[in-house]
Amino acid sequence: MEIIIGRKGTQRTPITDTTVSREHCKLTINADGTYTLENLSINGTFVNGNSIIRTVVTPDTILRLGANFSVAVRDLLPLQAANIKLRQAQQQNPLQQFAKPAVDPNQERYEMEFRKLKSVYEKYTADKLAIQKEAGMTNFYRMLPMTLMAIVSLGAACIPGLGALSPVIAVVGLGLLVFSLFKSYNGNRDNPEKLEALNKQFMIDYVCPKCGNFLGFIPYENLENKSTCNFCKCKWV
Fold it and tell me: What's the predicted TM-score (pTM) here?
């Protein structure tokens, strides 16, 4: 079975990050339950921070696609693939599928802890949006001098006598250029580190309250609708 990962891929978790290609990488299931991961994009596929061309991963491996998007292999798999081990266990012990699950005395606590994840996801989304807005302002400062110089040049051509101010205009334009380069450099220098730190902290905080596994870059509302952990099958709501 092959799974194409990307914005137009066949994976379970939808991807909207623009740094992820339409068909970014490919997962192929192996006989031993591992997966062969193959990069298909010039934007790069990363495992443990290293760019890969082809490697073997497990369902718990964390991937980074493009510049920003990180996800566990498990969250990309179709539900059928995620349930293979469960079906194998039921085939080995047919009575297991009829057994009643034991009631976990901590279930109420898990439900309360799960609801706290809503604020975790909202904070992550707000912080990521702030970084993206900062990058947008950086691009604005980069374009500002050229825009102003174009306006002034047009004015000098249309307004008699304004051409005499060309030396002043040139000095002002140079000052704006230096200012924009400074703002652009400072804005771009820290953004990748900020985003990487934000993603790492989110992967620490956005976990199942019972088993502690990272739940993926999935909106809280989707997890609430699903109501069950993919890893330990704990019911949250």
Answer: 0.45
